Every structure is written in C-alpha cells, then in structure tokens.
Amino acid sequence: MQFFTDHPELYNDWKFSLLSELPPWALFFVAAAGLAAIVWSLRGVRDLRTPRRFAGLAALRIAAIVLLVLAVCEPALTLQRITHIKNRLVVLLDESRSMELPAAAGQASRIAQVRDHFDRNASQWDALRNRFVVETWRFSSRPVKSSSGNPEVNPAGNTTDLLAGLAEAANDTSGRKLSGVIIYSDGADNEKLAAWEPSPNGELPGELKGVLDRLKAPVSSFGAGAGGVFTDLAISRVAADDFAFVRNTMEIEAEIEAHGAIRGQIPVELLEDGALLATREVLLGEGRRKETVKFSVAPQRAGKFVYTVRTPVVSGDAVPGNNVRNFSIKIIRDKVRVLHVAGATSLDTRFLRQHLTRNPNVDLISFYILRTTDDDFSIPEREISLIQFPTRELFTQQLKTFDLVIFHNFDYGPYQMKQYLANVARFVREDGGGFVMIGGPRSFANGQYAMTAVGDLLPVELPFSAADTDADFHPRPTQAGRNHPITNLNIPGGPDGWMKLPAMPGVNIVGALRPGGIALLEHPTLQAGGAPMPVVSVREAGKGRVLAIGMDALWRWAFNGDNAAAEARLYDAFWANAIRWLIRDPDLAPVVISLDKPEVDINEPAGVDILALDRSYHPAPGADIRLTITPPEGDPFVKELQTGPDGRARLSWEAKSPGAARIRAAASLKGEALGEAEDVLIVRPASREMQRVAPRPDVLEAIARASGGVYQPLPDGSLDRLPLLDPEIARVDRKEHHPLWNTWIFLALIAACLGVEWFLRRKWGYL
C-alpha cells in the first residue's frame, strides 16, 4: 500500500477494480473476444513436437491476450478506508406508577431493582455502548427518548403500554440495523396486552405479532418484582353496558384477582348510589387466583346511577385502592308506559290510540268510558261493562308504574275520582311523571277541573264554569312554539304554513298562562288575560311536565290539506315529539352537561361544558349558570357562570377524593328558570395503572421467546446472555484509485510476453 500512496495510514483496505467507462455488455464482448483469441491461438501451436514447447508458447500467448483484455478494462488498485456502522440497541425502561411498588413485602421498589441492575453491570453496559448505538426510551402510555442511558426515570405514568414501546423501537429513521431490544418492566400491561394470557403453543395477539415481525430482532427482558411474594386483592375488570332499560334485568360482571397469601371466601358487594344491592362470595385458593362474579339487577327508575363493586382490604394488601371500582350506567326506558283514559269515543281518541299502539316503544293501557253513572239504562251495569273502571287500583297502586297519564276529554266527577286527583298531581310533581289533558266537552273547565289538584298542574288558568266555542279556526304558533320540540314540525312556509292545515272545529276556553306556562299554539282571535288565548301550552310542574291541548280534533292533521307533503305525517310527528318532551328525553333537554371524560383520576382536571337553551330552544347567551359539584367527600363546590354567545359555559375542576361526583347545573335567563341538568363524574381511587399491579413475567417471557430473546428475572440476570445481532453494514469513508493498466510495468509485461514468444518461435523454426 505504501508503494501507491504517501499516506498509507489513511486507508485500512484495498481491492482491485475496473475503471473502464464501457458498459457491461461491451466489456462482456471484449472478454469473449479475448477467449476466442486464446482458443484460436492454441489451435495454431497444437502441432508442436514436444509438450514443453506447447506449454511455453501457449502460456505466453494466453498471458499476452489476458493483459490486452485487462488493458481495455483499465484495471486499478483502489485504496479504501472502511468504517463498520454500529447497529442500534434499544433499551425500554418502564416508568409507570406500578414500578414504585415494592418488589415484594419488605423489599425495595421495582424501579430500585432496575437501577441496581444497571449499577452492577456498568462495565458490561460500557462494552455494549462500544459495540452498538444504545438508545434508551422511557415508556408508560407513550415512549419518550432519554438523553441519558441511565435508568433515571420518574415512575408516575398512569398506564403501561408495552406494545407502544416495541412499536417505537421498530419505527427507526436512522438507517441503522436493529441488534435487539432490552425491556426493563414488571410486565403489568393495562393497554392492548392487558387481557392477553400467553398460551403454551406460543400464539401471539395479531398486533403484537406484527410489531415483532417489523423488529426482526430479538427482544430480551428483565422482569422487575417477579421473584418475590406480592400480596394484592384487586378488582381487575368490571364488565357492564353503558346503558340499561328500566325494569329489565342487566348483568354486571366483575373479575377478582388475588396474589400472595390470600385464601378462602372473599365477599364481593354491589352498590347503587351507595346503597347495597347484593353480595356474592368467591373462593380463592392455591389453584384459584382469579374468579369471576356476576350480579343481576333490574333497575326500577330512569336516570344515571353510580354502581360500585368492592371487596374488603386484606392484611398486607399492597394497593387498597384497587379493591373498589365505580362506574356509571344510564338507565333508560325500554318502553314508555302510558295510561290513556278517554271520557268518550271519538275520532280523536281513535287516532291517538292508533298512534300509541303503532309505536313499538309505547306500552299502552287504555280505558274508554262508554257510559257514566248518570246514564239511564234499564240493563244492569255489570251486564254491559266490558271491564269495570278500576279507579282505586289505577290511581293508588299502579299510578307510579306509568311514565305518562293522558286525560282525553275525561271528566272525573261521575267516577268519584276527586280524592285521587291529588295522587295524579303528586305523580307529576314528585315522581317526575308526564301529564296531558286533551280538550272536548268533558275536559278543562267543562270537566270541573278548576280549583282541583290536577287543574293546578295545567299551564293555564281555568274558568269556574263550563266554556267552549265551536267556531272553526286555524291555530298559529307563538314565537316559543316555532322552536319548541313539540311544535317544531318543519312545516313549509313557516308560520303561514299553519294556515294551510285543516281547521279546528272549536276550542275549550281557558284563561291566561300560569307562572312557568308557555304557549306553543294560540287562537288567532280569542284573548285571555290581555294576550292571545293559548290553545296548546306546556309547563314544568315540579319534577314532571304537563301538556294542555284545548282541542279534540288534532286527528285532522293526519289527513292531507293544501300542503300535502307536510301534513302526511304531521299528526304522528306532533305526538312523537310531545311524548319525548314529556318523559324528558335527554336529547330535548334545555340544559345539557357534557363531560370531556366520564372518568378521571384524583387531581386530574375534569372539563365540564354546559349548554343552555332559552324558552324557544335557541342557545341562550348571557344565561346565568349555577354549577354545583358534590364530591364524594367534603363540601359541595359551587360556581356561578355565564354562557357565551353560543349559549355555552365551561369549567375545569379537580377532584381530591375518589368516588362519584354529582354535577348539577341550573340555568336561568333574566331571572326566569330555563331548566336543570345532572350528570355523574367517576373519580377513580387509583389510576388504571394501579388497578392491576401484579407483575406479569408470563407476558415478558412470551414476548422474549417469540422473538428469539431471553427473559431473566431481577435482581439476577446477566447482559452476557443476551442474543444480539452483530453489525453487518460497512461505510466507505475514503477512496483512492491507482490505475495499473497504463503503467510501464503493465506495458513491459505485455511487450515481454509478445517478445519472448516471437523469440522462441524463431528459435524453434516456427517463423
């Protein structure tokens, strides 16, 4: 090498190369021509008398031709400086909160085991850094690259996602080949690998198999906390639907997991809003470390309720917080149970009954009064009654089982029902039921409802004497009625479109609106209290809602009028909207609470968003919001807010104690109440990371075995045993070509071969 360069120290390798600019196909033909020339020349000396002479001339001839071919190819000596590129070695350090737990009772923490292993193997780590480019990543929910190779991690992560760490190791952009992955973790994954139970046949979850295939390198692991005895009783999983139906049985399933010296019968309790519903027992022993318990519950009322599954805290329990799991379930109506009482048969009662029976979500109980006690019949009542009107049973024992009660052109007097009207009022105000009064000759003032408990429920005042009119009219929507869910029927033409609907043949006369009453449709000419008389009106009455319809001819909306496309389903749409509003369908609420997340950890900010709608169901800017958050422990948090231009207000709140926090928002606009809303925020006693904290060496070992790596439990384990791929990629940093074909030595060799051959042929008499 010193013969060709003055700086041999700059190079550590050499090779022969060809500098010819001819394309490969041309060089191929040159070589073929040289081979043909050799064959032809050998034929010319095959008749030599002795083998020695043949061999000598043939060798000279071949050498000359080869040298000439090489001259065309322009051979050179290339000096190189080659650097072997180091492979990557990825180290994944688990910094989730479970790494702070003791490796075993009375021992140091799991992360302390990791640090100690690094310290005891410092020289081996130095050797690995000389061989590889060592990348250190800290991971819990997502990997973060560490600037230091030492395990100076802060175990505060709320999840453990092994798959995310392995995927980051596979997503390399440096171009270096991966030699291997080393994991330091307790294996307590609570993300995509949480439910994976490694099997003896080595079958892997699909996503994990895909990541390992992308790595193409062995994954080795050191298991923290795997060698000691860890005591913990935990509710590792709760399975329940997000919603259930009133009076329908729902299933709640809880998985109880035990570690350490936990034996015997363990009671498991289920609570609803703090009240004990049921208790089950599971048997845990040496061979039974995980058991599933099931609860069957039939909720009796609609709403959002907090359910709790809990187990006792056993002696030496490492994480008492994972013995309790809170979750919320929204209970909704499977069917709306409706009591429909009609004082007489008519087309209006017939059409309403048909609508209710066609609706699969309605469970209808109907009573039609065909005769009253004032009717003069010579035939005894028991012989002509289809069924006796069960007044006492309906309005005392069964009333609370209904969601909606409809008095349809019904007068209570002939049935000695006055004593039960107070029950109907309590059903609405206290139990949150819905009530509808529909007009006719036996309804409103005609039915003597003034100064009764039911009359006081209505949105309008009632005259003391019977009053109605049979003049045809077209009801018109009020400003509130144009946007209210009941009468917002998308009629083409807006308010003018109502004039094209079939006319109503008369109306019950009522008085002015009561406080809180809202007129949705009004009479075009009649007045009440100095304002147009309400024809259809609504009111919030305590916990319930009331709808008053002063007409008994809404059935006409089921027939096409001048506006055929709009009225085809107008009647059904009106009643469908009315029922949803009366039973407080959450989608129609004037105040809505939205949570950023239904569950948060202690001290984690919880975002609360409140939407307020005015009486016309438009966003209410400038509305006053009184937000009350009742935490599981401590005094309620009360905050006065005001909505912005979009009718929304927002607050961030941090819980300091675990359990269920009740959130209540009451909205008002210019002193007038708009409505209220409630929701539940679950505050976890421990993060998801701390709900299942037992070490999972089986997960780490299965990953290592599937990838060709090795698993070793801490505090033992050696870096020398790790299978790592050596570097295979080399980089040429410096290169220098020295042509050989145009030197005097090369030309002298060609001349010598040709000259010696000529001399010998002449000497031997072949010229």
Keywords, please?
767 residues; alpha/beta; Immunoglobulin-like; 5 domains; 8-stranded mixed sheet; 6-stranded mixed sheet; 15 helices
Strand proportion: 25-35%
Overall helicity:
10-25%
Task: Tell me the number of helical segments per DSSP (H or I, 4 or more residues long).
Answer: 15
Describe the largest sheet. Answer: 8 strands, mixed
Secondary structure: number of strands: 35
Strand order of the largest sheet: 17-16-18-19-25-24-23-21
| Termini Cα gap | 43 Å
Oligomer: single chain
- How many domains make up the 3D coordinates? 5
Could you tell me the CATH topology label of the largest domain. Answer: Rossmann fold
In the CATH hierarchy, the architecture of the largest domain is 3-Layer(aba) Sandwich
Q: Summarize model confidence as the mean pLDDT.
A: 84
- Name the poorly predicted regions: 561-568
CATH C-level of the largest domain: Alpha Beta
Q: What is the CATH H-level superfamily of the largest domain?
A: Class I glutamine amidotransferase (GATase) domain
The outline comes out as: elongated
| Helical/strand content category | alpha/beta
Word description of this protein:
The protein has 767 residues and is an alpha/beta fold. The protein folds into five domains: 8-83 and 734-763, no CATH class; 88-228 and 695-721, Rossmann fold; 232-332, Immunoglobulins (Immunoglobulin-like); 336-582, Rossmann fold, CATH 3.40.50; 594-687, Macroglobulin (MG2) domain (Immunoglobulin-like, Sandwich). Helix content is 22%, strand content 33%. The strands form eight sheets. Strands 17-16-18-19-25-24-23-21 form an eight-stranded mixed β-sheet, with helices on both faces. The chain has a six-stranded mixed β-sheet with strand order 5-4-3-6-7-34, with helices on both faces. Strands 9-15-14-11-12 form a five-stranded mixed β-sheet, with no helix packed on it. Helix 1 (24-44) packs antiparallel against helix 2 (51-73) and helix 9 packs parallel to helix 10. The chain is elongated. The two termini are 43 Å apart.
